[in-house]
């Protein structure tokens, strides 16, 4: 088809579906741990990075199985089945109603959900990691030797399908996750958010199987990684056996393998080890880079996602693939040629060093954003303190004196104050004066508590009610808290949307209820036996708490006032874009250049060893994050960002020093030299054989 083997179209579609499945599931994973399983943020981060590390360890296993035993086709087929089962198990494990026998909205046996989720993730890690080194190589196998141009086009299509799957899934699955579903109670729809990737993985498997008769299946030819491991192991063992001084030293410790392995293989392994030595500092970059899906997503939950339309915290990850698609061609066609014109020697290792520096700066930017978020948080009362907020529901202004002579506050009609902090041991009473009426309230406050005093002047009296807020932190996950106070002279039943706040007597207050959908307006109804009054609420922000007073009802139109108890998130998600931009620049300079450099410095038959080493650095980087998240005593998130930035900066300096001692080589020249020597030796042997034959004939 258009000069291409028909089979490669099945492989490209398979890759698109598989990448959609993986990135879609991964995008919502951290919030699933934190919100559904109710794990603490550090623990959720640690488990997330354990999963990612496992995804980058298993490719080595997949490559060995494919090259030494099953072949690429069977390896992809069997591990895709494991993969699809894992996605299905994870989706089932996220069903809230699975063990919710009492129908209260929470699983009665959360251990069942956790067990199924962990089994699913292990199967997914085995599947996605196992097929990772096989699919692109299997696609390359479909072409003949004279189809170099078509093969190159295939790899472009292949990586386009990866980016397309990543972009679409990171956009779609968080939207599905934010929707409401459930049998008994409506909650965030994780079963569907994981179910759609599971269906896409099943589609990927079916598409791959449909093309099975068209595939060119190359038989397993042995895995070079095993050969390299055996050679290195033999060299170490042989060196240990001959460690006494009576044996002469050899130029390189790998030369101790020369008794069993040929010189060319040993020389090739030496080239690979020189590159692998440079890989030692690289995990620190991946420790920073892969926190986009964990720490940065959790950071976004404390931010305002209103872009004129609602952006979910886990959708911010889409900034990275969008910027990659834009920046790779810009850097290759504009930036690098410009640097070359300026006659600057911007070598691959220098590019990687700059990439690491930019990664460090990305976390400095994240720390600055986190400081702004922390500064926007409300201050709650400490030990020995309490806080009081005043709401004047009347039509007359009021003055409140806190006794003994602590503070005096004026409150306008239908207005409020912020929370005021007092020492519980000092504050004894308060006195309200409004429209020549006077009322004194004796106080006995509990420490670390917030209170609201709502009052109103009525002819001849001041009516008031004390409310214990029972809120000790800002609402998480961008959700809002709403309560109602009845400022009408009669009892009403209050509903908002499908939420029932119950009957409220005059000047009584409902409990706070969680509003799931930030940025939405809701219909408020106040029902009486004779008639019902309605009005639309304002659009609530992200992470706020509100008291809504029901003030009047004229011609079935309800009049309300919104009082803000806790301000919504004020730091906009757009402030994350600079850190994503810096990290994407770092990725372009570090990751793309790093793979290109590695391949240029390795012999043709050793590229899979370097790919395994590269993937191993990603796994180790994620292990670093889970160690820090699990063991760190840092309680401020901005300080942890600064820690990672500082560590990466130190590693960047170490890498720059190591790179300055590296000498670039051309493996093709070295291999050609060996080939030349082999030919010369062969010629000598042939000449020797001819002379022997001539002597024999003379005899």
UniProtKB/TrEMBL annotation:
Keywords: Cell membrane, Glycoprotein, Membrane, Peptide transport, Protein transport, Symport, Transmembrane, Transmembrane helix, Transport. Residues 675-699 are annotated as: Disordered. GO terms for biological process: protein transport. It comes from the Eukaryota. It is a multi-pass membrane protein. It is found in: Apical cell membrane; Membrane. Its main location: membrane. The chain crosses the membrane at residues 46-64, 76-95, 110-131, 152-172, 192-211, 271-289, 318-339, 351-371, 612-634, 641-665. SUPFAM superfamilies: MFS general substrate transporter (SSF103473). It catalyses: L-alanyl-L-aspartate(out) + 2 H(+)(out) = L-alanyl-L-aspartate(in) + 2 H(+)(in); L-alanyl-L-proline(out) + H(+)(out) = L-alanyl-L-proline(in) + H(+)(in); glycyl-L-proline(out) + H(+)(out) = glycyl-L-proline(in) + H(+)(in); L-methionyl-L-phenylalanyl-L-methionine(out) + H(+)(out) = L-methionyl-L-phenylalanyl-L-methionine(in) + H(+)(in). The keyword Protein transport applies. GO terms for molecular function: oligopeptide transmembrane transporter activity; symporter activity. One of its GO terms (cellular component) is apical plasma membrane. InterPro entries: MFS_trans_sf, Oligopep_transport, POT_fam, PTR2_symporter_CS. Electrogenic proton-coupled amino-acid transporter that transports oligopeptides of 2 to 4 amino acids with a preference for dipeptides. Transports neutral and monovalently charged peptides with a proton to peptide stoichiometry of 1:1 or 2:1. Primarily responsible for the absorption of dietary di- and tripeptides from the small intestinal lumen. Mediates transepithelial transport of muramyl and N-formylated bacterial dipeptides contributing to recognition of pathogenic bacteria by the mucosal immune system. NCBIfam families: 2A1704. Belongs to the major facilitator superfamily. Proton-dependent oligopeptide transporter (POT/PTR) (TC 2.A.17) family. This is Solute carrier family 15 member 1. It comes from Urocynchramus pylzowi.
């Amino acid at each position: 088809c258009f000069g291409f083997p028909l089979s490669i179209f099945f492989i490209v579609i398979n890759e698109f579906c598989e990448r959609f499945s993986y990135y879609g599931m991964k995008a919502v994973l951290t919030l699933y741990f934190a919100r559904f399983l109710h794990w603490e943020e550090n623990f959720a981060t640690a488990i997330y990075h354990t999963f990612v590390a496992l995804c980058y360890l298993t490719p080595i296993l997949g490559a060995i199985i494919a090259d030494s035993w099953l072949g690429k086709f069977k390896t992809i087929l069997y591990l895709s089945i494991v993969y699809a089962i894992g996605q299905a198990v994870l989706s089932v494990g996220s069903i809230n109603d699975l063990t919710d026998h009492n129908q209260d909205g929470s699983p009665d046996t959360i251990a069942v959900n956790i067990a199924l989720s962990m089994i699913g993730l292990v199967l997914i890690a085995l599947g996605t990691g196992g097929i990772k080194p096989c699919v692109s190589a299997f696609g390359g196998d479909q072409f003949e030797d004279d189809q170099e141009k078509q093969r190159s086009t295939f790899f472009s299509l292949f990586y386009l399908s990866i980016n397309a799957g990543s972009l679409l899934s990171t956009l779609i699955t968080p939207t599905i996750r934010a929707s409401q579903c459930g049998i008994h109670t409506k909650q965030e729809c994780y079963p569907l958010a994981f179910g759609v990737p599971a269906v896409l993985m099943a589609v990927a498997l079916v598409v791959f199987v449909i093309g099975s008769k068209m595939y060119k299946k190359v038989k397993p030819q042995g895995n070079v990684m095993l050969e390299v491991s055996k050679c290195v192991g033999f060299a170490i063992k042989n060196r240990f056996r001959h460690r006494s001084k009576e044996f002469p030293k050899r130029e390189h410790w790998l030369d101790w393998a020369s008794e069993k392995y040929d010189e060319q293989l040993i020389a090739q392994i030496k080239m690979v080890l020189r590159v692998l030595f440079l890989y030692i500092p690289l995990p620190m970059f991946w420790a920073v880079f892969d926190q986009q899906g964990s720490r940065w997503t959790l950071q976004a939950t404390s931010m305002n996602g209103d872009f004129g339309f609602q952006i979910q915290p886990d959708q911010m990850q889409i900034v990275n693939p969008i910027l990659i698609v834009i920046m790779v061609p810009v850097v290759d066609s504009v930036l690098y040629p410009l640097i070359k014109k300026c006659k600057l020697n911007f070598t691959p290792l220098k590019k990687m060093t700059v990439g690491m520096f930019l990664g460090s700066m990305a976390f400095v930017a994240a720390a600055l954003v986190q400081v702004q978020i922390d500064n926007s948080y409300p201050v709650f009362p400490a030990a020995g303190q309490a806080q009081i907020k005043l709401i004047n529901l009347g039509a007359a202004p009021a003055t409140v004196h806190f006794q003994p002579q602590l503070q005096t506050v004026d409150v306008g009609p239908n207005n409020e104050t912020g929370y005021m902090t007092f020492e519980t041991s000092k504050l004894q009473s308060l006195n309200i004066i409004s429209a020549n009426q006077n009322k004194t309230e004796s106080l006995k406050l509990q420490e670390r508590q917030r209170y609201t005093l709502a009052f109103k002047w009525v002819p001849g009296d001041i009516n008031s009610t004390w409310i214990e807020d029972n809120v000790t932190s800002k609402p998480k996950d961008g959700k809002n808290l709403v309560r109602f106070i009845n400022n009408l002279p009669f009892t009403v039943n209050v509903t908002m949307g499908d939420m029932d706040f119950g009957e409220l007597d005059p000047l009584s207050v409902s409990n706070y209820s969680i509003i799931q959908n930030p940025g939405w307006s809701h219909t408020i109804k106040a029902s009486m036996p004779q008639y019902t009054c309605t009005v639309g609420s304002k659009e609530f922000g992200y992470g706020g708490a509100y008291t809504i007073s029901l003030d009047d009802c004229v011609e079935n139109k309800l009049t309300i006032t919104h009082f803000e108890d806790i301000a919504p998130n004020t730091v906009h998600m757009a402030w994350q874009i600079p850190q994503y931009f810096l990290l994407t620049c770092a990725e372009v300079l570090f990751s793309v250049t790093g793979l290109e450099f590695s391949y240029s410095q390795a012999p043709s038959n050793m590229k899979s060893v370097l790919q395994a080493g590269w993937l191993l650095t990603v796994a180790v980087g994620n292990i670093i994050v889970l160690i820090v998240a699990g063991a760190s005593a840092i309680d401020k998130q901005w300080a942890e960002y600064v820690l990672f930035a500082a560590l990466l900066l130190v590693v960047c300096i170490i890498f720059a020093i190591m790179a300055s001692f590296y000498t670039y080589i051309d493996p093709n020249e070295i291999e050609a030299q060996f080939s030349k020597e082999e030919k010369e030796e062969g010629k000598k042997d042939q000449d020797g054989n001819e002379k022997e034959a001539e002597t024999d004939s003379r005899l």
